[in-house]
Every structure is written in C-alpha cells, then in structure tokens.
Design a protein that fits this description.
This protein has 25 helices and eight strands. The protein has 741 residues and is α+β, with helices and mostly antiparallel strands. The chain folds into three domains: 417 residues, Multidrug efflux transporter AcrB transmembrane domain (Multidrug efflux transporter AcrB transmembrane fold); 113 residues, Alpha-Beta Plaits; 129 residues, EIF_2_alpha (Alpha-Beta Plaits). The strands form two sheets. The chain has a four-stranded antiparallel β-sheet with strand order 2-3-1-4, sandwiched between helices. The longest helix is centred in the first third of the chain and has 35 residues. It is elongated. The two termini are 32 Å apart.
Length: 741
C-alpha cells in the first residue's frame, strides 16, 4: 500500500508541529502548577444551571432555608441530662466560630424558659423527637446551618476541616461519648476528597503498571518514551485547557487522567508495533520508514480516534454537569493524543534505526495462531456460542437497576456511609422531600384551614407511603406556642407573631412559612433503599394529595434533595439511551465511509455491539447499578471496543488485497495486528482495573466494567470477527478458498 499524498507533508513538517505541541504542553504544565485545577464543591455542580429541577430546588432554598447543612450527633450511655446539655453547649460555642456556620440548632437552642414550661413534653415534640433527640434520649443531634458559597472554593473545605478538628478534640476530651460528623455539606467534601486522593494513588499505580506492561511488550526504551510522552502531553494539554477556559474539573479529573493516558498509550502500542514491522519491511532511511508506517497507520488511527471520540463525546448531552464536561474534555484529549502521536512518530522511527531484535513473545504467537485455527475449524460453534452469550447477557440487561441512593456511592465500610446509617437508625432519615404550597392570589396563607390541611396531608402521607418516616408542617412549629389545634385565623396569626418574638422562633417559623407569608412548606423525611421510579411515584403522590387537600386556589410543587437526586438519576437513563443512539449512529456512519461495503459494515456492527450487550449484561447479573458514571458505559464501551476491530479489519483488508487468500490474510492479521490488539487490551484492561480500588463506587464500577468488557471485545475480534468474515466474505471471492478442517 503506497503512502497517501498527505503522508510526506506530515513527515516533512513533523518537527515544527512537534515543537509547537511541546510548547503548548509546557504552557499547560505551567498553568497546572501555578493556578491548579478549578473545583466546585457544591451540590449544584452536578447539574446544568438551566435544569428545571435545579431551578425549582434553588427557588425553594432561597425562599425557605439553605440546603447546606451538617449534622453532629452525640451518642451517650445515659439519657439526656445536664452533662449532655453541657457538652452540647460546649460544641455549640466551638461550631459558632467555624467559617460558614450560620446557626447551630439543637435542643439547647430552645430558650430555657420554654424548656422549663414544656417540661418532659418537650422531648416528645415533633420538632425534636426523632429529629434532634432520639426516642430513648441517648442520641442528640446538632444541625449546623451553613452559608452557601457562590465560588464553591477553598472556604468550604476549610469549614469542614475546622469542624473535624472540633470533633476530634471533643473525642479526646470525652472518650466515653460517641460523636460523629455527617450531613450533605460534609459528605460532598468527603466525596471530593476521596476522588482527589484516589487520583494521586491511581495515577502512580497506573503509571507503574503501564511502564511494566510496555517493557514486557517491547523490552526497549524508545517505545516506552514515545508512549509516555504522547500520554503525558495529551493529559497536560487537556488539564491546561480546563484551567485556561475556567472549566470545573471536580469529580472527573481522576477518570479523565487515567482514560486519556491509557487510551493514548494503547494507540501508541499499535504505532510502535507498526514501527517494528517497518524495520523489517521498509528499506531506506528514517523518512522512508516514517512514510511506510504513516501510510499504513494514519487512516486506521484516524478512524479509531474519531470513533472513540464519538463514544465519549456523545455523553456530553447529559444533564449531569460533570458527565457533560467529561465528554467534551475526553474528545479534546483524544484529538491531542492523536495529533501528538502522528507528529512524534518519525522520532520513534529514528530512535529505532539501531540494531534491535524485538522480543519473541512466543506465548502470544501461540495463542494468536491457535485463535486463528480455532476460527477456521469451529466457525459455526463460535457463531452459536457468541449468540448464546449475547442472549444470556441480554436477559441480564433486563435486571439492571438505577441507583438513586446517593450514599450508596460509597463503600459499606466507609465512615461516610456508617455515619449516615447511624443517623437514620437513631434519629431521622436525611432524605428530604418538600411540598411547597402557594396561594395563587398572593394573599396570606397561614389560616386555621391551611394549617389543618397541611397537618392532615403530612399525617396521611406518613401513613400511606412506606418510605416516608416522618413529616413536619407549620402546625408542628406553632405547637410550641399553641399545643392544640388552631381554632381560627386570628389565633393562627397570633401564634405566628408570638413564635417570631421568642429567641430562635423566627428561624423555626421560616422553615415552614416564607417571609412574604403566601407560601407554606411541608417537610417529609424519607428513607433510601427504593428504586428511582418508586421514589418519583411517591413524590407524585405527595403532590396529588396536597393539591386535592388545598384545592384549585393553591399551587403545589414538590422539590427537596430526595426528589432532586431522584430526578437526576431518572435523567441518567434517558441520557444513556440518547447518547448511545448518537454514538451508534455516528460510529456507523464513520465505519460505512471507511470500509464502503454493506456486508463489512454489518460484520463490524455485530462484533462491536456484542461488548456493549456483554457490559450491560454483567451489570444486570452482578447487581451493578446505573449511576453517574455507569450511565456512560454504553457509549464509551462502543467507542473503545471498535478501536481494535478497526485496526484488525484494516490490516486484514490489506493482506487480502495482497494475497487474495482469506485464510492466509486472517493468519497474517492475527500474527501482526492481532499481537497489537492483545497488547492494547492488556494495557487498557489493566489500566482501567486500577479504578476498582476507588473508594467512590461509581468510579470503581466504571473501571471494572471497562476492564472486563475489553477482554470480551478482544475475544470478539479474534474469534467472532474472522468467523463472520469467513461466512459472509465481505471482500469478495477468495483467489484461494479456505481449507476445510
């Protein structure tokens, strides 16, 4: 195959291109070291700013109370007494000095005269029992209301660090008391800390693993330096872009780094193997050999880059902000790796001018030769076997569940998950759903009827919905003033006014009645452990019940963290199917343009859709739920799985054109590009398997699934692909028919 006309230009101008890329890499590295990555630690960083559920949730937060809160819980041997009260006061004084803490709410926040007046009745009050104090009075909680920080920057981490220091000091002073710190404000920081720590550890492990793998494959420094430089340049350029454009990289940096590095190295393995072939097949000097390699590799590498970029780029349609940014940045990283590898390839060829005996890899040759012979001899059993596997995995796909429990993104033995489970066991669920009831005419809403209706809705939904464990309404707040029912509108107004007058009462009232006085809030505490459709159905039932109770003169909305996160997870399913549809269509178009044969296109699609079915089937059979990262699996798997298939088919097409013997073409392809496919699969699978160690389960699932799926894709390339080609003969009739075995 002669080099394309563009190849001499690439060879001729590779130096200025390589120098330009090196300069950009240095500038990006300087930005990375001097400015650092832009991070955002808010819950809102998960979604696009125009997300309807987000807008509704933000409106609720601004109207009633911030969603930013932390929880401190004390568990004592004896029930609540003066000593426990003294400890709460001690903690209260300490936490009030913490940056971003607006208010500390606990049982000691209630003025002593009111506590004295209510006596033991105080402990059974709905605002306290099961919320700030347990039923057995041995667990008490402090709710820390945090100020939202628009920048989402370092102050948030400092606040959590200060709170942890206070808790650690308290534990040393009171060793007999169990104290824990949790809540959404703290958990988000824990999640980012896990990801950041994993990035450092996994980057080192991935680097070591890749170096070892490359050494075992090539036993030579030049290919290792080539792959290392291309991968390093691609990821530094990508991270530099995030800094230059002000793109938030929180949560995605870990996967971005490993994926760009691993995929860049995998592409370099194909180029390095081709360079070895050039040393044996092409005469002349560096330029001739570079033209030889580029003539054979430019087009398939470009196709691979496009199909992989399409797979990752398709996930950018997601409404989840980190997923959207991840897709865009992966496309840039893949393009950067492709351009860098092409510009740097002549340098690799030049480094390979010396005498060099490539490693024998007898085991690989034997395995690949056996795979080729097996495909010849067992064509029908292979087709049937893969069909059975596809059917079994398709059944597993039906079992896939969608993870809507945010806390289950952490491992069961993690402190984050244990603390949440402790709060739910001893106090109240932290999953909060809100009903917002607004008068259509804007008139005051707090009347005897609306207060009674709100209490009735709260009680009926607690009794009706299994996931709802408690509900609080305006009646519960006003019962601090009027223990019984509100008899008339005058009494309702008087109770609200009196509650505002007592210390802390205005804050309590604002949890249930907005400042304008035209909107009520009913708060529901819901447990996890239900699938997303059950959660959304329960939220819909809440809204319907409230609308029926209040009537057409009132507008009812449902929001809150519980509903908000369930809505996000529900969107993941739609995002997954939409992105997969886009990726499948675009990859089909690229493959059709590249190979221009309908039979070949059918074969390629069958071979590459099998790993996708396999991936989803593994998720279903092993109970791996769809979550923030697993929702990308279909598109990403298709984009990566097609890479080796393209390289193999391109080489097979060339071999068949040269010899006209399909059996010989398959044997030659297995021995040459098949070796590169085997090595790249090992690099990719081992690189992704590092993510299995992540403490953030979505990342661990993503890495493990990709690792397993890559081996399934390799099996499809080495067995199913030749079996289909032998059966359908997409290149036309053989000059020499395959022998029967």
């Amino acid at each position: 195959m002669n080099p394309s006309p563009a190849n001499p230009l690439i060879v001729r101008f590779h130096k200025p291109i390589a120098i330009f890329i090196a300069i950009l890499t240095l500038v990006s590295g300087w930005l990375l070291l001097s400015r650092g990555l832009l991070e955002d630690y808010r819950l809102e960083a998960f979604v696009a700013s125009d997300n309807p559920a987000y807008e509704k949730f933000q409106a609720f937060v601004e109207e009633f109370t911030s969603n930013e809160f932390a929880v401190v819980a004390l568990h004592t041997i004896e029930p609540f007494d003066d000593s426990v009260e003294a400890m709460l006061v001690e903690l209260n004084d300490s936490f009030e000095e913490v940056e971003n803490v607006q208010r500390c709410n606990s049982i000691v926040s209630i003025p002593k005269p009111i506590r004295a007046l209510m006596g033991n009745r105080l402990y059974s009050h709905p605002l306290l029992e099961g919320n700030l104090i347990s039923h057995d009075r041995r667990t008490v909680a402090m709710l820390l209301q945090m100020s939202a920080e628009d920048s989402g920057g370092a102050a948030r981490r400092r606040s959590v660090s200060q709170m942890r220091d206070i808790v650690d000091a308290f534990r040393l002073k009171h060793p007999d008391v169990r104290v824990l710190l949790t809540g959404p404000y703290v958990t988000l920081i824990d999640m980012y800390a896990y990801v950041d720590q994993d990035l450092l550890v996994f980057s080192v492990l991935a680097f070591v693993l890749i170096v070892v793998t490359l050494w075992l494959v090539f036993r030579r420094v030049a290919p290792m330096l080539f792959a290392g430089y291309v991968a390093l340049s691609a990821i530094v350029l990508t991270l530099g872009l995030t800094i230059a454009l002000g793109i938030v990289s929180s949560l995605i940096t870990q996967m971005l780094v490993i994926l760009v590095v691993v995929l860049a190295v995998a592409n370099c393995v194909h180029l390095a193997v081709a360079a070895e072939d050039a040393a044996a097949s092409a005469g002349g000097g560096t330029q001739a050999r570079s033209q030889f390699v580029l003539g054979h590799m430019l087009v398939p590498c470009a196709i691979v880059m496009i199909t992989t970029a399409v797979g990752f780029g398709s996930v950018s349609i997601s409404s989840i902000a980190p997923v959207k940014r991840f897709g865009v940045l992966m496309v840039f990283g893949l393009v950067a790796a492709f351009v860098t590898s092409m510009a740097t390839l002549p340098i690799l060829v030049r480094l390979g001018n010396g005498a060099y005996e490539p490693p024998d890899h007898r085991w690989a040759k034997r395995v690949l030769a056996w795979c080729a012979e097996f495909a010849f001899a067992r064509r029908k059993p292979i087709l049937g076997g893969f069909l059975i596997v596809a059917g079994v995995m398709a059944l597993g796909a039906i079992r896939v569940e969608f993870q809507s429990d945010f806390i289950k993104n952490f491992r069961p033995n993690s402190a984050v998950r244990r603390n949440y489970e402790f709060i739910e066991t001893h106090l109240t669920p932290l999953g909060s759903t809100e009903l917002v009831i607004r008068r259509n005419d804007g008139a005051p809403i707090a009347s005897a009827n609306t207060i009674a209706w709100g209490a009735k809705v709260a009680d009926s939904l607690v009794a009706e919905l299994e996931m709802v464990r408690r509900a609080l309404s305006l009646k519960d707040a006003l019962s601090l003033i009027v223990p019984g029912a509100i008899e008339n509108d005058t009494q309702a107004k008087y109770s609200c006014d009196m509650l505002r007058m007592i210390p802390g009462g205005a804050e309590i009232l604002r949890n249930f009645l907005n400042d304008a006085g035209d909107t009520l809030r009913i708060n529901f505490r819901c447990v996890e452990g239900y699938d997303v459709q059950q959660k959304l159905a329960a939220c819909a039932r809440m809204k319907l019940t409230a609308q029926e109770a209040f009537g057409p003169d009132f507008e009812v909305e449902v929001t809150g963290l519980y509903h908000f996160y369930s809505t996000l997870v529900d969107g993941l399913l739609k995002d997954q199917y939409r992105s997969f549809g886009i990726a499948a269509f675009c990859i089909t178009v690229v493959l059709a343009a590249a190979f221009r044969r309908l039979r070949m296109l059918v074969i390629l699609l069958l071979v590459n859709f099998l790993p996708v079915v396999f991936c989803v089937g593994v998720m279903g059979w092993f109970g791996i739920p769809v979550n923030m990262t697993a929702a990308m699996m279909l598109s990403v798997t298709l984009g990566i799985a097609v890479d080796d298939t393209v390289h193999y088919t391109w080489r097979l097409k060339r071999e068949f054109a040269a010899h006209g013997d399909l059996e010989r073409a398959i044997r030659e392809s297995h021995a040459s590009v098949g070796r590169a496919c085997l090595f790249t699969t090992v690099v990719i699978a081992f690189g992704f398997s590092i993510l299995l160690l992540s403490r953030f389960l979505p990342t661990a699932y993503f890495g493990g699934l990709l690792a397993v799926t890559m081996f399934a894709a390799l099996a499809a390339d080495l067995w199913l692909l030749p079996a289909l080609i032998l059966t359908l003969k997409p290149f036309g009739a053989n000059h020499a028919e395959p022998s029967s075995h």
